[in-house]
Design brief:
The complex is a heterodimer of chains A (347) and B (140). With 347 residues, chain A is α/β, with parallel strands linked by helices. Chain A folds into 2 domains: 148 residues, ATPase, nucleotide binding domain (Nucleotidyltransferase, domain 5, 2-Layer Sandwich); 174 residues, 2-Layer Sandwich (Nucleotidyltransferase, domain 5), CATH 3.30.420. In chain A, helix 4 crosses helix 11, helix 6 packs across helix 7 and helix 7 packs across helix 9. Chain A is globular and about 60 Å long. The two termini of chain A are 31 Å apart. Chain B has a single domain, classed as Rossmann fold (3-Layer(aba) Sandwich), CATH 3.40.50.300. In chain B, 22% of the residues lie in helices and 31% in strands. Chain B has 3 helices and 7 strands; from the N terminus they run βαβαββαβββ. Chain B has a 7-stranded mixed β-sheet with strand order 1-7-6-2-5-4-3, covered by helices on one side. In chain B, a hairpin with a 2-residue loop joins strand 3 and strand 4. Chain B is globular. The chains are: A alpha/beta (347), B alpha/beta (140). The interface between A and B is medium-sized, with 32 and 23 residues.
């Protein structure tokens, strides 16, 4: 079965083609056009600029991905229909809907966060071959807009265990970067500087770490960083690195502590990491150490699949179709599909 | 103009309840205050006062979140964040136009000070940190 997927939920335009067959998943094409350089000067994504860029890049990207075979061997189209920026989502969805309708192909709407979960399948052959062995799995989803602990009982079967009550992890990183004028996107910059800093230089809180639930709160930590900086007034390069290191360790402490505690309570058979912040090496190595202590398999996506991409959307669509969980739209009903900018994977 | 001093989250909740009591639907509330001032905390309290039980999280990343409400005529609380926006037109681009000036909606905009030309009748709420948990809240 071949799936062509389109993703345009934020500032990346992406198209990918995947072939799935039982215990194999072959990524045939994976094209991404990133707008990060364009949005850098604004310190964040500007919706109108993003939408215009999607408009310019999406057709050439689809043409390129399909080559001269066009849609000949494609069985399903998939598209991200939320969550994301409404104007960005609309572009990818309009292209996907049009392609599906004209070529009489079924269209499968996919939740962007579910795509992130399936980036693990793109990166780990063992998961593709023996999925069932690793369910239930505890998935820590961390990105610019999300911070959730999800119990994945099987393909497409999720239970929300905990989530952020205010800021998402990626957002906290971005805001800390902005406080020190470090640039955009903040996450990779802060984590790179953190490697050279002393994480014990500043005492920062670990919000909600010892609370008896799996929710997170990062707004207070962000504010604590702000107060620390205000108190110091003159901040040299070493201070910046120390603040980054102290902040990163505080975030990782809370994420790892809660994840590992949930492993015990829910009797899971594996741990997975997903979302843009899955690229954070501090988080990955700390989780990997703790997982090893428990003799628990730990999966994470390759760096190239941590950012937004269409390959993960295609993979999620493949498993949903395969397990008869997909919302398959055909013919005129394709046009009923609307973007859901706040679509939550699990309520 | 009304000025309040809030010593803790409980006080902020009381002030938010007072604001909620004045809402009839169709209002636009502009929230201003620095990073960490407690804008999202105020929106959480306002939502709670309006009987919304959803988990209100920062809309910085997705720019706008919409919550269902059942509060008099108000059916929706629209939570917008201008932190990453530059101009008033950007608000139209994220689809806010669909929700503004609608009797069944209350729209709360964080970082509203980044947008100059907000419509007449906008309720302005400014939150200033006085150190620790203490906040000055000015409603205009």
């Amino acid at each position: 079965m071949k799936v062509l997927a389109i993703e345009s939920s934020c500032d990346e335009t992406a198209v990918a083609k995947i072939e799935g067959g039982g215990d194999s998943l072959i990524l045939e094409k994976n094209a991404i056009y990133s707008q990060i350089d364009i949005h850098k000067k604004y310190g964040g994504v500007v919706p109108e600029v993003a939408a215009r860029k999607h408009l310019e890049t999406i057709i050439p990207l689809v043409d390129d991905t399909l080559g001269k075979d066009k849609l000949k061997d494609v069985d399903y189209l998939a598209v991200t229909s939320g969550p994301g920026l409404i104007t960005s989502l609309l572009l990818g969805m309009t292209v996907a809907k049009t392609l599906a309708y004209i070529n009489k192909l079924p269209l499968v709407p996919i939740n962007h966060m579910e795509g992130h979960v399936y980036s693990n399948w793109l990166s780990n052959d063992e998961l593709v071959k023996n999925s069932q062995k690793y369910f239930p799995s505890l998935v820590l989803i961390v990105s610019g807009g999300h911070t959730e602990l999800v119990l994945m009982k099987g393909h497409g079967d999720y239970q929300l265990i905990g989530q952020t009550l205010d800021d998402a992890v990626g957002e906290a990183y971005d805001k800390v970067a902005k406080m020190m004028n470090l640039g955009y996107p903040g996450g990779p910059i802060v984590s790179r500087l953190a490697e050279e800093g002393d994480d014990k230089a500043y005492k920062l809180p670990r919000p909600m770490m010892d609370k008896d639930n799996y929710d997170f709160s990062l707004a207070g930590l962000k504010t604590a960083v702000l107060y620390t900086l205000e108190k110091k007034k003159n901040i040299n390069k070493k201070d910046v690195k120390d603040v980054c290191a102290s902040f990163q360790t505080a975030v990782t402490d809370v994420l790892v502590h809660k994840t590992i505690r949930a492993v015990g309570e829910f009797g899971v058979k594996s741990i997975m990491l997903a979302g843009g912040v899955a690229a954070n090496s501090n988080l990955k190595s700390r989780l990997s150490v703790e997982a090893k202590k428990l003799d628990m398999p730990f999966f994470f996506p390759e760096i190239k699949y941590t950012g937004d991409n269409a390959a993960m959307i295609a993979a999620a669509a493949y498993y949903k179709i395969q397990n008869k969980q997909a919302d398959i739209l055909q013919g005129k009903e394709i046009f009923n599909l609307q973007p859901k900018s706040n679509w939550q994977l699990v309520k | 103009m009304k000025e309040y001093t809030s010593n803790n989250i409980g006080d902020t909740q009381k002030i938010a309840k007072e604001v909620a009591g004045t809402l009839r639907g169709g209002e636009l509330i502009a929230l201003a205050g620095n990073l960490g001032a407690g804008k999202t905390v105020f929106v959480k309290a306002l939502a709670r006062a309006m009987g919304i039980e959803d988990n209100i999280t920062s809309p910085t990343f997705v720019l706008m979140k919409v919550y269902d409400a059942d509060f008099g005529k108000v059916e929706r609380l629209v939570h917008v964040d201008c932190y990453r926006l530059e101009h008033a037109e950007d608000l139209q681009d994220i689809g806010l136009g669909d929700y503004l000036n609608h009797d069944n909606n209350v729209v709360v905009v964080e970082w509203a000070d980044k947008i100059n030309d907000l419509p007449e009748g906008t309720i302005y709420i400014k939150i200033e940190s006085l150190g620790g948990d203490k906040r000055k809240i000015i409603i205009d």
